[in-house]
Amino acid sequence: MGVVATTTTAAGTRTIARLWQEAVERRWPGPAYLVQEGESWHEVSWDEAARAVEELANGLLALGVKKGDAFSILGSTRLEWVLFDFALGLIGAVGAPIYMNSSPKDVAHVVEHSEALGVLCEGESQRSKLEGLQLEHVLTFDELDDLRARGQAYAESHPGAVAEAAAAIREDDLFTYIFTSGTTGPPKACMITHRNYYEMADKIRQIEDFTVTDDTMLLFLPLAHNFGRLMHLHSPHVGYTLAFCPDPYAVAEALPAVRPTVFPSVPRVYEKIHTGVTAKFDEATGVKRKLIDWALRVGREVSRLRQSGEPVPRGLALKHRVADKLVYSKVKERLGGRIRICVSGGAPLAKEIIEFFHALDILILEGYGLTECTTAATVNRPTSYRFGTVGPALPGVRLRIADDGEVLIETETIFDGYYKDEEATREILPGDGWLHSGDVGNLDDDGFLTITDRKKDILVTAGGKNVAPQNLENALKTHSIVSQALVVGDKRPYVAALITLAEDVSHDGAEAQVQRVVDEVNRDLSRYEQVKRFTILPRDFTAEAGEVTPTLKLKRRVCQEHFADEIEALYS
Q: Which of 83, 176, 408, 497 lies 20 to 30 Å from 529, alpha-carbon distance?
């Protein structure tokens, strides 16, 4: 498969500074990063990256930034973000990242709550969000060359200063604040230590063929979120090449240009690709349609055998190769044509969508975790997966299901608590040695975890029946005409849904189409779970309206507030 990295780091040196230094010492064979410049992609070597990080770290020391100082980064997924993050980690400063699309109010919350003494902004439009804040340092990406020059001068007069700062970092020192997405209230600052993130990166490294040294990964995920942050911190630990796509709307163009072998994403992207592919298939007629149906039948049979670990007979394997050449390859080209694995996290992805992609010979590995355990606790493996589950525990992670169904986690990657919020910390870390996730799930006999919903999201109807809304919402979203679905019904006589339509679907006559979708979803459900009424909203839920998190999860409370009249009408 490729080169798999090995690491022998002694306990006590599990810091992000050490993780970076190990990468520099190894001199990985391929380029460290790929950056788009106009229509072409430019390689950045590990030597170039190492020099930049060293100079930026010296520059920060020249500014007076020291161990324990918080410094925010406000920008998109770019090389500058990553290099500055490693520079902060190298001197023991604490990162306090901010989502690119944050409002000035949200920016102020992160900066003030973390007590950041400075902010690195992508540009002037981001700098304008800092108006009125008391900050010692405000930099832009364009000013980093000046900081590097200052660092060069500082290194000449203070040789060994960065090495000395790195050596002073202890593994239980704070590395970063990661602010929660705010689906249930104001974002809370998770305190993540150096050991937490080093261990997290190393757990992923231990999974065979998950990521290997000669991989290329396309990263568009926001670096202020744990999922994207882990992918960038993991890359020097394994040595794969990281290609940056700063604009999430440009992913479709970046995939065939970069031709990645690994593609991590939130479910929304896979949902949109699924919608586009199924719509294209539905347009086909005659011989072309028959060919697609045949290829999908072959793909589903091969998928069934692979899922169960059974060999694929020679005749079926031959049909599969033909189907790949005629049908699957066309879809694979949308992902660049070289994809080994796709990874899905941050929110649940419908089993039907994962199965559809696998029938097209595209493997999506779904994982599960939360910010409070430094990203991931479980993930399906390249050679062992069960669709509909989020996989078995990562190496060194223990799982337990509480009496009420809550998933409990025990691992070295559990965070140090919420900054300035002891009450919330006690709720999730009650002192029994386990992280109380707030998610409801179950473990099968082989240790594969299935998440059914968030405890706080479970609907209890007026009749006392418990309904998991995410299962219904995912089932509704597998249909190409549905963009988003929000299921309601807590303390109500029946379950109902707010539906938004896909971009290319006309509202004229849509009600009958959606009714058919709802009827199909209801067919396999108990009566109390079925969606009895729905309404089609005039627009989609949006991040601009505060209804969607940066990782494209719905903020239920906000959505229900914004469409309170529509919900009341469903029960009138």
A: 408
- CATH number of the domain where residue 504 is located: 3.30.300.30
Residues 422 and 548 in one domain: no
- Quick one: 151 and 207 in the same domain? yes
In a domain, 5, yes or no: no
Which helix (H) or strand (E) element contains residue 354?
helix 351-359
Give the pTM: 0.86
Of 406, 408, 296, 407, whose CA–CA distance to 358 is shortest? 296
Give Cα 208 to chain centroid, integer Å. Answer: 21
Q: What are the E-state strand segments in 60-143?
A: 70-74, 94-95, 118-121, 137-140
* CB of 21 closer than 8 Å to CB of 166: yes
375 & 499 share domain: no
Residue 97: strand, helix, or coil:
coil
Instruction: Record the tokens describing residue 531, joined without a space.
Output: 């969606």
pLDDT of residue 347: 83
Domain boundary pick from 399, 433, 455: 455
Strands 398-401 and 40-44: unpaired
Same domain, 486 and 533: yes
CATH number reported for the structural domain that contains residue 30 in this entry: 3.40.50.12780
- The dihedral sign for the CA sequence 314, 317, 322, 325: negative
| Statement to judge: residues 376 and 504 lie in one domain | no
Contact 88, 175 (CB under 8 A): no
Q: Which pLDDT does position 5 carry in this prediction?
A: 43
Last residue in a domain, options 427, 455, 483: 455
Structure confidence at residue 3 (pLDDT): 46
Question: Same structural domain for residues 291 and 201?
Answer: no
C-alpha span between 547 and 416 (Å, rounded)? 29
**Amino acid letter at 149?**
A
Question: Considering the domain boundaries, does residue 6 fall inside one?
Answer: no
Q: What is the pLDDT of residues 223-273, one digit of tens each?
A: 999 999 999 999 999 999 999 999 998 999 999 999 999 999 998 899 889
Residue 184: Cβ-neighbour burial (10 angstroms; 0-12, 13-18, 19+): middle
| φ, ψ for residue 460, nearest 5 deg | -115, 110
Instruction: Name residue 217's amino acid.
Output: M
Which segments in the chain show pLDDT lower than 50? 1, 3-11
Same domain as 421, residue 475: no
For the chain, the domain total comes to: 3
- Return the SS3 of 547: coil
In-domain check, residue 7: no
C-alpha 56, offset from chain centre = 27
Let me know how many helices (H) and strands (E) the chain has, helices first: 20, 23
Q: In this structure, are residues 540 and 484 in contact, taking their beta carbons and an 8 Å threshold?
A: yes
The enclosing H or E element of 493 equals none
Residues 413 and 514 in one domain: no
481 and 505 Cβ atoms separated by less than 8 Å = yes
Instruction: In whole angstroms, give the CA distance from residue 52 to residue 80.
Output: 10
What single-letter DSSP state applies at residue 99? -
In Å, what is the CA distance from 474 to each residue of 268, 317, 364, 366, 526? Answer: 11, 32, 16, 14, 17
Determine the structural domain holding residue 339 and report its residue range. 267-455
Residue 9 pLDDT: 43
